[in-house]
Write a structure and sequence with these properties.
Layout: E1 3-16, E2 28-29, E3 35-37, E4 44-49, E5 55-56, E6 61-68, E7 83-88, E8 91-108
Antiparallel strand pairs: 1-6, 1-8, 2-5, 3-4, 3-7, 4-6, 7-8
């Protein structure tokens, strides 16, 4: 079996779209669980943790921790400076930029 590197925890600068831009009407709270897309049609499930507050209002930005569910294909998309979109279903509600990769692991495949 060959080990595959998977990176799935990172710190990012997140921005929620304002309500006028088609974003949410209400804030998101700590441990928010949207899906993420990194420039492909593939969506990845994850969780956002706000270390400095309990919520993020539409139209605002913050630095947050993102934890993605492991995937052997995620590593090709995660690079510092990389951009991603935040989805609720098929609706884009925000975007972000990866600041640092915080955790890289290997799985046997």
């Amino acid at each position: 079996m060959t080990p595959h590197k998977i990176a799935y925890n990172f710190t990012a600068t997140l921005s929620l779209l304002s309500t006028n831009q088609g974003g949410r009407k209400k804030p998101v709270f700590n441990h928010y669980r949207p899906s993420f897309s990194f420039g492909s049609k593939q969506h990845y499930s994850g969780e956002i943790i706000f270390p400095h507050s309990d919520e993020l209002q539409p139209g605002h930005s913050t630095t947050a921790k993102v934890k993605l569910l492991p995937s052997r294909h995620i590593n090709e998309h995660l690079k510092p400076g990389g951009m991603f979109k935040i989805f609720e279903g098929e609706k884009v509600v925000g975007m972000g930029f990866i600041n640092t990769i915080d955790d890289e692991r290997y799985i046997e495949a």
